[in-house]
Queue: 2 jobs
Job 1
Amino acid sequence: MSESTTPSSTVLLRRGEVHSPADPFATAMVVERGQVAWVGSEGAADAFADGVDEVIDLDGALVTPAFTDAHVHTTATGLALTGLDLSGAPTREAALALVRDFAAARPDDRVLLGHGWDAARWPDGQPPARAELDAATGGRPLYLSRIDVHSAVVTTALLDLAPGDLARGDGPLTGDAHHAVRAAALGAVTPAQRAGAQRAALAHAASLGIGTVHECAGPDISSEDDLTGLLRLSAKEPGPRVIGYWAEQDVDKARELGAVGAAGDLFVDGSLGSHTACLHQPYADAGHTGTAHLDAAAVAAHVVACTEAGLQAGFHAIGDAAVSAVVEGVRAAADKIGLARVRAARHRIEHAEMLTPETVAAFAELGLTASVQPAFDALWGGEDGMYARRLGAERARTLNPFAALLRAGVPLAFGSDSPVTPLDPWGTVRAAAFHRTPEHRVSVRAAFTAHTRGGWRAIGRDDAGVLVPGVPADYAVWRTGELVVQAPDDRVARWSTDPRSGTPGLPDLTPGRDLPVCLRTVVGGRTVFVRPGE
């Protein structure tokens, strides 16, 4: 496969499998002027062969719409790719050893950045103490975010760089203190380092068949310069599309920065892992109910302002009390300005993990999109997982009810929240289809749709995310095994390879099987990734 494809080229892809609702038996596709021009069978492809600029022999490969990751922190993802990764550290001692080696290898870095520690998975359950980190770094500034990015451990030298008089105890920093040290750490990253991290993240996304990312930026997460720089970079250089969200209750600011919504991680609460998600009943392993940042009145005011400005509103809500506050607030907004206007705006809720039948029904009624992360269940679900430790087994089993959301007609958009969980689109689809709680499972087809077309629908576009004539030519080419059609079942996954089903097949994602390998990613007709050797 060559790398010559440009948006102005006319390209015929043939002798493969094209995943298209227009033709479940399609083996070929024509792309012209950055759009899909035709999808069909191999015999009909001969008629196009002489009139195109390039013919790509798929050699049996699968072509699908490119994935959309609907919740990404791009710079943080890039810094995690180029910084210290503690996600594999099996113990606190191993994490400290990695910190020592990383500090020694980076003598010139103004601040040391790392991510991914999870004390809940370590034998002693204890995060690194500040004195231990001071010793491991030789007294240099260090910021280490927990896997959920809602708390961090830092060195004394980084505390000294942060404004205000922050707590000097040994525990992880959360809330405002965490936001302050994160701002200090990211403030020490040079513009060149930041752009390098953004390029690394987008290149990694492209290598995984991701054609679009929704950047969830905000004043407590990144910075205005970070978002505007990322949007400029993505517009100027080939790579995945970037759709920007700005998490602040300031509609004018979001529009000024080029965001499509004052949304994303506009925090109503925190996270379960850091005991900051806001619950109706106390945590099973802590004597409190978490942290509330916005109440229903604030939610209502923001939804009204965004709706009237023609922008999306959106909120980070994980705990059941936080989700209830969002539903109450959006309903109050609908009462004020009309349900039809609120529904038409397609406001978003990020994460939406602790739902009840009542809040699921309210999402459907209010036209809310659930922007969810199936990898959270794969990582933290199950009888012995973090959810069960935080909430008890009974409450934990209710989390991430994807099947109930789909049955109610709630639009789903899948993402990773990278770097919280890695960019991994096929792994995300697998996590939804093989949810640790069987009644929450959805079909591979439904999960795939949520990770492709669902991301486009979440920004108000119903004309993309599928391979049919007239849509943007955002697609990926995959090396994979036999294609199957799978239906969800509480007892056993049913599979069919019968082409008479009339449903285009997808890879067999049964746990233990190899995931598809991306050979090529194309965005708007422009090739943004080709696997070396292809």
Job 2
Amino acid sequence: MAGMRRPVAVIIGMMGAGKTRVGKEVAQMMQLPFADADNEIEHDAGMKIPEYFERYGEPEFRKLESDVVLDMLEDFDGIFSLGGGAPMTPSIQQGLAEYIADGGKVVYLMADPKEAMERANRGGGRPMLNGDANERWKKLYKERDPVFRRVANVQVRTHGQTPQVAARKLMEMIDQRIVHVTGFTIEPYDVCIGEGVMSQLAQVLGDEPAKVALIHTQPVQRHSDRARTLLRQSGYDVHDIVIPDAEAGKTIEVANGIWQRLGEEGFTRSDAIVGLGGGAATDLAGFVAATWMRGIRYVNCPTSLLAMVDASTGGKTGINTPQGKNLVGSFYTPAGVLADMGALASLPNDIFIEGLGEVAKSGFIMDPEILRMLEDHADELRSFDGSTFLDSDLKDVVAELIERTVTVKAYHVSADLKEAGLREFLNYGHTLGHAIEKLEHFRWRHGNAVAVGCVYAAELSHLLGYIDQDLVDYHRSLLGSLGLPTSWNNGSWDDVLALMHRDKKARGNKLRFVILGSLGHPIHLEDPPADAVEEAFRRIQR
């Protein structure tokens, strides 16, 4: 696709949906050129569309339309709006699918039918509406709506909105980043990253659920209020369920309380759950969704950096037991993940920085570009301030870091949902990290514990001759420059060793670690020499 100019977004929708009006507004806001397929066709044909229709008939028109649209998809770099019927043509559907596969955004502009019909009638010059215009419009809507939903990868409702408001909404949607998660054993779903993506909640939930349980913690009240409003506006019956914050919310007692409520309130298999909050809250909500009636629809709205890059993707759900973290759980994928960058603005500095531990880990095991970005922006990241974040250049940097980290996670998960081989590489730094969390009674945050765990794994890799001292030092300097801890000395080796034996990766009484063979290339280490395992621990105690 090199050298090909692609539209920034393609707008589709019914006649009268406001594709041209809203498209022009968006193009102006984003300082991009705007093109309307119908104008391009008239220009090529040398006559108005109604006249062309009259003279050559619809099939000929559709052929010309297809040629024009496919050319524009490969040689126009602004906002491009299509005629109402264009997405019904198979060759155009194919062209749009290739454009989406190449990272494009096809936006279905969903207007209120009454508003759209009035606008379509006012406009005149629409050969498809000859006869009883309203009846024709409704018939076309019935045929086209399901196709438009299938063809588009972004939907924007404009009911009752001015073109300016609709355009701003559309701009947020175009600016978002989408990571498509697929795999042999999973229903594909999208992780949407951007400011304002929470507004797609109803779109991801779909029309089937009547009741929605909104599971969240107290500190994210502002975001849960917004989610509740969006859900109610879309006609869902919302049941609010508040759970304790952080790891205290991930217990069988909390899960049991929610199961009781779902039972009392008549939740059926066709209802849904929305989990909103940090990693612990989304883990628990996913576990409840996976177990209620053997699995109901579930949407994930992570509000912390850690939850966005870690807990939100990969379908791991779970609760803790007194014996350890995440020992009870299931693999269950969400219908979608909405990582709304707006939520990061309310994060305290230390909770934001904790999330960088998992970001850096993804760089160490697969994507060195992540490490380069962390190095280049270490000072700004370390001094993160939520109150200025959304208006700063840092927002784009963080959005890209989230996108890259989720992509690393999606790669490992799609090949291996159930954690037999490849997926275990995501546990780099976690064997010691989980032991630290447990011995600190979860007063240490997960990302901080993982940062120390990565240094430990690097020390072990070095002791066994896989990597050189420079790469170990690099772990320490990079993590330290972000404000993450790189040492820990608050527990005895015996306690740590006992917990490592209980780690989910352990097989029988043999320890298993993920270490680095080289930067970006993790390997499994089975039953390493006991003295090296202990010596690496001594080295992170300094």
